[in-house]
């Protein structure tokens, strides 16, 4: 479970990150930190959600990565700062949760149905 943020409350309030932007950020972070080997890390963007609160907006993504690549993947994202995707605004990624068990995945109440479907499809 990842979050993209500008780390500025007023900019995060209006920030809306779509699936394409998530993929661009991830690919650029992997390439910048691990070169072509980083781009070879396989991941699946399961879902991206925008959660609006009174004083902030959270841009969340749920990403599946193999255990072998998980450390390299998250290290690349955690140290990468992108200034090109949002017109010279720094965009960074924060790891909110890492789990091997989908049952333990923390989601908002509105996402429980999505989580249940994900778990059912995983077991098939």
TrEMBL record:
Name of a matching Pfam family: Pop8
GO BP of this protein: intronic box C/D snoRNA processing; nuclear-transcribed mRNA catabolic process, RNase MRP-dependent; tRNA processing
Signal peptide: none
An MF annotation (GO) of this entry: ribonuclease P activity
GO cellular component, one term: ribonuclease MRP complex
Domain Ribonucleases P/MRP subunit Pop8-like, chain residue ranges per copy: 2-80
Name of this chain's protein: Ribonucleases P/MRP subunit Pop8-like domain-containing protein
Source organism of this protein record: Hanseniaspora valbyensis NRRL Y-1626
């Amino acid at each position: 479970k990842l979050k993209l943020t500008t780390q500025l409350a007023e900019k995060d309030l209006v920030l809306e990150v779509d699936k394409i932007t998530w993929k661009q950020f991830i690919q650029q972070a992997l390439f910048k930190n691990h070169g072509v080997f980083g781009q070879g890390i396989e991941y699946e963007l399961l879902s991206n959600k925008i959660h609006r609160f009174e004083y902030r907006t959270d841009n969340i993504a749920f990403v599946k990565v193999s255990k072998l690549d998980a450390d390299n993947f998250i290290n690349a994202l955690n140290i990468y700062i992108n200034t090109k995707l949002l017109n010279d605004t720094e965009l960074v990624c924060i790891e909110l949760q890492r789990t091997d068990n989908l049952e333990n995945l923390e989601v908002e109440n509105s996402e429980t149905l999505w989580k249940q479907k994900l778990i059912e499809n995983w077991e098939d």
